[in-house]
Every structure is written in C-alpha cells, then in structure tokens.
Amino acid sequence: MSLTRTVRKWYVLRTFSGHEKKVEEYLMREIERLGYDDKLSQIVIPTETVFEMRAGKKKTREKTSFPGYILIEALIDPYLKELISGAPSTIGFLGANGEPVPLRPDEVSRILGRMDEDQGEQPEIPFKTGDPVKVVDGPFNTFTGFVEEVYPDKMKVRVMVSIFGRKTPLELDYLQVEHEG
C-alpha cells in the first residue's frame, strides 16, 4: 500500500435531497457494526444557521448548505466504497465514472471553515439609518416608516411610523420588516 493511501481524504457523497441525515445515521451504524471505524473517521453534513419568523416569533434552525451532498473523510478501499455507494438513498460518489475523487485540501478548508464561521457569526446588517421600510409581521403589519436606529447585536431596528398622525417609534426584529420599494 502506498503512503498516499494511508492518509484519509475527504470525498463527496451524493444523496437524495433531504435524506442526508438518514444516510449519515445508516453509514454510522454499518461502519460500527462492520468494524470499519479505522477507515471512515468523519461524516459531515454542511449546515448553516438561518433565522426566520414563525407565528410572530423569531426562530433559528439548521439548514443544509448543500442539499443532496455529504462529506466523508475516509480511507477508501473497494469494500468501503461498495458499502457507502450501496447505502439507501445514495446516488454515488462525486467523481468520474463513479470513482470517488478526493476534494482538494483548500476546498475542504473552505467548506468546513464556513461552517465554523457560521456558528458564531451574526447575519449581515440588512438595514441602515434612513432606509424606508414596511412592517411585514406583527400587530403593525403593513405600516411603513423609516429606520431610526439599528441594533446589530440584538438583530433589531427602531422604525418611526405614523400612527393616527403621530410619529411613533417601534422596535422590531430584522425579520419583521423589509425594504420598501
């Protein structure tokens, strides 16, 4: 066996979209059952945290960054390749003629680094002072106004709207307003 084959490499496995977790769980069970722990060290489903509004409340959830793809760090031999390729809900390895082609180290760093960054990173600030906005969620739905102040740490904005002819400040989540126009 050559020295380059003793180093685990990262490969991309194509799956049915939405079945990534099911494939990961199946492979982990089979790897443990067959004692291939020394050949397959990691299975990663690249995800990112997204914020959304549901029933007037801000919720966070994990979203798959690359639906239908999972990353596998392994020493691929014919038996392991067959086990992984034959898993339910898989399409096969990304590569030429069904042969797994390892990712370059810079590609792996970019994908895994992006996941690490996402864990502590706040989303970009979508508003600035003076922006015209429309309220799209909550009791003031459809009101329009202008951004008075932005609170990036809380992901909120203070919007000045006109209620019964009086200027009134509202503190709203980023997801409760959108740019008007």
UniProtKB/TrEMBL annotation:
PANTHER family: RHO-INTERACTING TRANSCRIPTION TERMINATION FACTOR NUSG, TRANSCRIPTION TERMINATION_ANTITERMINATION PROTEIN NUSG. Participates in transcription elongation, termination and antitermination. Residues 7-115 form the NusG-like N-terminal domain. Signal peptide: none annotated. The keyword Transcription applies. Belongs to the NusG family. InterPro entries: KOW (IPR005824), NGN (IPR047050), NGN-like_dom (IPR006645), NGN_dom_sf (IPR036735), NusG-like (IPR043425), Rib_uL2_dom2 (IPR014722), Transcrpt_antiterm_NusG (IPR001062), Translation_prot_SH3-like_sf (IPR008991). This is Transcription termination/antitermination protein NusG. NCBIfam families: nusG. Keywords: Transcription, Transcription antitermination, Transcription regulation, Transcription termination. It holds the Pfam family NusG. Residues 126-153 form the KOW domain.
